[in-house]
Each structure stands twice: as C-alpha cells, then as structure tokens.
Amino acid sequence: MNINRLIMDTLRPLGVPVAAANYNSTAETYIVFVEYNQASRMNADDEELITKHFFQVDVFSSGNYLQLVKDVKRLMKQAGFGRMFESETYDIDMKKFRKILRFNYENTIGEINIE
Q1: pLDDT tens digit string along 37-78?
Q2: Domain of life here (predicted)?
Q3: Mean pLDDT along residues 92-99
Q4: pTM (2 decimals)?
C-alpha cells in the first residue's frame, strides 16, 4: 500500500484539490500534505518492525473553511491517522487562511511505502 495514495484517497471525497508537497493552480480552496518525519516505533532483534510516519496537512482557503477542516480531521481519523497538532494562520501574500494539521500513522514494515 502507498501511504501518499492512502491520504489522497482518504481526502478525495471532500471535493477540493489535494496534492502531495506542492499545488500549482488557482483553486480558492485546496489541501497540500507532506511527510515531515519517519521514526522507528518498534524494533526486535535489531530489525525495525513498525514505522511511525508524521504528516502535515495544510488546508488553504480564501473563505470559511471550518467545516472542511472538521471533515479532514474526521476522514483522517477514520483512515487510522492520529491528530497531534493544529494551528491556524493567514498568508497575506496568498490572501488565504491556512489550517495546519499534523497527523501520525503507524505501519508494519512491508505493509506500506511512501512512493
């Protein structure tokens, strides 16, 4: 299983563009995500058995995006992601609100890849 595909498929029902790392378009509202860290979660006999992945999901919008943010959190939780952090900013240059959400996801080695 591909973890980036898992996130894309999880957020697709929201009906807004979703992109990994970078979004180059003119949509008023969109979502960008990036993996910012990986760490060994469990080891045995000098082998990593479980990896913990850390993702940041940014929701950008020119208008009210509160329901969209609630839906992102709900869908990510249903897909097995744990929410760790949440913050909000306003990007003056882009003239967009930005909700920053950080999630983690644990997987058994061989179960998932990033590509």
Answers
A1: 987 777 777 777 788 899 999 999 999 999 999 999 999 999
A2: Bacteria
A3: 94
A4: 0.86
Domain 3-108 matching CATH 3.20.20.370: the answer reads no
Q: How far is CA 49 from the centre of its chain?
A: 23
Domain ranges of the chain: 3-108
Structure token pair of residue 32: 């960008």
∠ CA 14-20-24 to the nearest 5 degrees? 85
Rounded Cα gap, residues 35 and 7, in angstroms: 11
In this structure, what DSSP letter does residue 113 have? B
Strands 82-91 and 96-108: antiparallel
| Strands 96-108 and 47-61, sheet pairing | antiparallel
Q: How confident is the model at residue 23 (pLDDT cuts 50, 70, 90)?
A: confident
What is the full DSSP assignment across 63-111?
A: S--HHHHHHHHHHHHHTTPEEEEEEEEEETTTTEEEEEEEEEEEEETTT
